[in-house]
Amino acid sequence: MAETLTPELLIRAYEQGFFPMGEEDGSIAWYWPDPRTIIPLDRFHVSRRLAQTVRQGRFEIAVDRDFEGVMRACADREETWITEPIVAAYTALHRQGRAHSIEAYKDGRLVGGIYGVSLGGAYMGESMFSRVTDASKVCLVHLVERLRARGYSLFDVQFLTSHLQRFGAVEIPRKEYMRRLGKALREECRFAD
Question: CATH number of the domain at 7-15+33-185, please?
Fold first, then answer.
């Protein structure tokens, strides 16, 4: 796929199980991992300590207040795959109502967030960041609550990390992922209000 990254291309790619990452030279690399990592929404694990942090309401949580700000904060690290073409394409996808962010604010300042793509009953988590302890984790809890409440069936997190494993992330074979994705794409779920 050597085309310019557009919202339409992103949607087609996600519907076929692919996702992009930007390269240092400005090019786009496409990934279709096998196995694929998901967080089963019915087995999402929250530690006691994190549940207590969520209950304490340390952060103001918002949806889609500063989508591009979340993307740029996720990219603000030594090495990143979130290049300018990626930011531009996902921001355009957000304007179409297909990409969304959950954000944590403290004293009016964006301190954590997560963003991803929503298609049917599938949410593909792309990246998260935290400038204050637990901010991104609290966003993840709120994201999963939203996905459950709105009837989503698939939460794709792409690659397994020890961080995501603590929340119940598991690897599944590509064939099983594609079966679940096909089912989820036929569902009608609404992420935003």
Answer: 3.40.630.70
